[in-house]
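Notes to self after the Tuesday call (sharing in case useful).
The group wants a holo model before anyone commits to mutagenesis around the pocket. I volunteered. Ligand is adenosine monophosphate. Logging inputs and output together so the record is complete.
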Amino acid sequence: MNDYEAIKKQILEKIKEYDTIIIHRHFSPDGDALGSSLGLRDILRQSFPNKKVYSIGTDEADYLRFLGKEDNINDNEYEGALVIVLDTSTEKRINDDRYKLGKEIIKIDHHIETDPYGDINYVLDDVASTTLIITDFLISFPNELKISVEGAKQLYVGTVTDTGRFRFKNVSGYSLKLAGYLLDYGFDTEEIYSELYMKDVKTLHLQGHVLRNFKMTENGVSYIYLSRRLQNRFKVNVTEASSLVNSLDGIEGSLIWILFVQDENGVIRARIRSRFMSINEFAMEFEGGGHAQASGAKFTKKRQIKTMLKRADELIKEYKMNNKGWK
Ligand code: AMP
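Result:
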């Protein structure tokens, strides 16, 4: 048995040991955070109907509402409970501080490990999504774990969103096999894709603005800043504005692209994407983080945008000088 098989067994034993299991995820949930949380809740409820299993989150994303509802629970539920935190690389990103009230914590994640805050840490940074780690966990114990069609859909949605519809470099043959396993449960993919990718007219108008007005640095960082004022002008909310990050994907020679979005509190969120190049260490220089080709950071001072662009531009220059085959 290799280490991963042993750790999966250990996690299953822990789950069996506890009567109450509470699942947490990171702030500002994306498809992977919510999909893995609701999907694991479904697996545990289907497999262990006598246990109390909850999925916790205090903030939400409108576009993911179709995935299902999280739970509201009292603090006393945490007493003697097992807490499982999903898709959350650092302790400070865990949504709802009450995760500390549980008896033990299991961290399950696919971001590069920088903060092993769990009593058990099951972190696979080469796996494309946390939902795939959960799906692999599910099929590792066919006699003990099961899932409903709804749960399979929740895991599938997290997989689709975190892999950029199976396009990112970290998608392996095994990723597709696991996704195929979920797909065979027979949920309606047309419904999923229309929930995820349909844009309303006002967001498309803002996309037009992004395409007309984005800028590019000397060596190829494409970027645009979407202030609250601009969002108000187009009558879009922060989530709708943030969804436009991929509008800057596929520009020749632009190996890094960054969408800066100001939220209601004035905080500027940088959504950073790249091809060929790795950008998570760059994001960490700005106290952010993430994956090799999809990272993020947050700051409050607008002048940070300039600093960030300057650094990203240097990195592209260096990359282009030392590498071939990029486009
Ligand atoms: P986003 O652009 O928000 O979808 O983020 C892309 C990836 O970067 C996600 O996997 C996030 O977990 C990670 N990320 C985003 N913002 C931050 C941050 N402020 N600190 C650390 N990681 C982040």
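Two things stood out.
Residues 27 and 261 are 16 Å apart (CA to CA).
The mean pLDDT is 97.
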